[in-house]
Amino acid sequence: MKKLLVANRGEIARRVFRSARELGIATVAVYSEADAKAAHVVEADEAIAIGPAAARESYLDMAKVLDAARRSGADAVHPGYGFLSENADFAESVGAAGLTWVGPSPASIRAMGDKQRARALAEAAGVPIVPGSARIAPGDTDGVEAAGATVGYPLLVKAAAGGGGIGMRRVDDPAKLLETVAATQSMAGKAFGDGSVFLERFVPKARHIEIQVFGFGEAGAVHLHERDCSLQRRFQKVIEESPAPGLPEPVRARMAEAAVALCRHTAYCGAGTVEFIVDAVSFEFFFLEMNTRIQVEHPVTEMVTGMDLVAMQLRFASGEMHNLQQSAIRSTGHAVECRLYAENPQKHFMPSPGTLAVFTMPDEAAGLRIDGGYRQGDVVTPFYDPMIAKVIAHGATRDEARAKAAKALRQIEIEGLASNRSFLIACLEDDRFARGDVYTGFIDEHRAGLVASAAEETCP
Amino acid sequence: MAIIDIKTEITGNIWKIEAQPGQRLEEGDTIMILESMKMEIPVSATEDGVLVEILAEEGATVTEGTVVARIEA
């Protein structure tokens, strides 16, 4: 690998360039009209314009990205995250053009991108999946109670033809199952023209915990421990950390084993993440999905393991790395990542595009890493995601990491748009968060209090 | 009869226009959908009335507070 094109923008493009430079690989940026002067463009050895601001006409346009690779003479393509990173057709086209694709095989991307197939693969690999029943047709009440007992309570009765939360009813008491099934069937029949329903276990207080994996195809796979990403708003992660607070050691080990088993079963190649939903009370865990790319929150893992995941991706893709011993991967201390978003927590986290009239970040130091894509004066446009930067802190303990992250966030000066800077501090310093009482409903349930604390932070 | 200005709450791109001039709207009905930072944000009627005009085109970028439609209420 001599010259790498990164088919992405912002902080992740810069992140990939950094590892490429360290490995002596030349870098090529691509950019839309909105990003002509962006930090990632300035930093790359070469930069190629690929079209208008709208992502579908630039960063998502396979032909333009491939043409940029051809024109620049790049011999490899790294997709970053988002955009084309989980597009199997793009991965295939990169290979067909004679270039190295820094990522898993198109077959892996395709399999994991299809929820049903991913679930079936997980089950075949012995990975626990959310217990569910077969379809229950209207009028068919035989075996429903037995199915309910197998699935476990509380459970959801879901319309087979529904989706997005429509046609879903919760059952806590087994005695209410039959009547709820009948009511849901009747409603589903009217709403969707198909009265079939199925049962699925419901996790009332859930955590999102994922295992970072790295697969070497037929040569096996390793894990790089877990990340807890339970703090979310609108299903997007806000704060991530490793290790997951309070996760019992045997559960941690079983989750890691399950993730590695899935990689082995599919002869997975490269970096990936196996996401689980974990019952915050019982610590039962179930497969959610597998992301076949580098994740936004990968620095958390890098901070605790001291490993460079992007460098591993590049070395594996170029054939310089064939395997890794699990025993060589150790997790030390605690790391936490906070995503600085251009959004307004007081207006339900509405996006807030604008110009960074003032923007200074603290300097990186021991145990403090800043991954960002913007500089003072840059415009955060409405065209792409609202993430401005990530603040990643590492400490000997969770409290030390929390304090370090909060201190760094306090040092950020940001004006010209609304940001969640103070809100992040409020989360880090919240008593419940400090105790490790994290779950996916944390921000929604505590929003008012967190926003109030954040307001005090802004106006002392 | 009053003419009401419908303004955007945030900076974004007009993704889809959903209502036509002349159409009767109720408060809360979606007139158009903005796209900003990968989120879809509806621009809705603030009162019951008739949509008089649409002042923006699909694909256009609008800043916060731009009048994008008028309603006769």
Number of helices of chain B: 0
Query: How large is the count of helical segments of chain A?
Result: 15
Please tally the β strands of chain A and state the result. 22
Calculate Rg of chain B over CA atoms: 11 Å
Structure description:
The complex is a heterodimer of chains A (460) and B (73). In chain A, α12 (398-411) runs antiparallel to α13 (421-428) and α13 (421-428) crosses α15 (442-458). The model of chain A has no long low-confidence stretch (mean pLDDT 95). The longest helix of chain A is centred in the middle third of the chain and has 17 residues, at 249-265. Chain A is α+β, with helices and mostly antiparallel strands and 460 residues long. Helix content of chain A is 34%, strand content 27%. Chain A has helices at 10-22, 39-43, 62-72, 88-96, 106-113, 115-124, 144-151, 177-192, 249-265, 298-305, 309-317, 398-411, 421-428, 431-434, 442-458; strands at 3-6, 26-31, 46-49, 76-78, 100-101, 155-163, 166-171, 197-201, 206-216, 221-233, 236-242, 269-279, 285-291, 334-341, 343-344, 350-351, 354-355, 358-360, 368-372, 379-380, 387-395, 413-415. In chain A, the strands form six sheets. An eight-stranded antiparallel sheet of chain A has the order 13-12-9-10-11-14-21-19, with helices on both faces. In chain A, strands 3-2-1-4-5 form a five-stranded parallel sheet. In chain A, strands 7-6-8 form a three-stranded antiparallel sheet. Chain A folds into three domains: 3-102, Rossmann fold (3-Layer(aba) Sandwich); 144-201, Dna Ligase, domain 1 (2-Layer Sandwich), CATH 3.30.1490.20; 206-458, 2-Layer Sandwich (D-amino Acid Aminotransferase, Chain A, domain 1), CATH 3.30.470.20. By secondary structure, chain B is an all-beta fold. Chain B is 0% helix and 55% strand. Chain B contains no helices and eight strands. Chain B has strands spanning 3-7, 12-17, 24-25, 30-36, 39-44, 49-54, 61-62, 67-72. Chain B is elongated, with a radius of gyration of 11 Å. The mean pLDDT of chain B is 93. Chains A and B meet through β16 of A and loops of B.
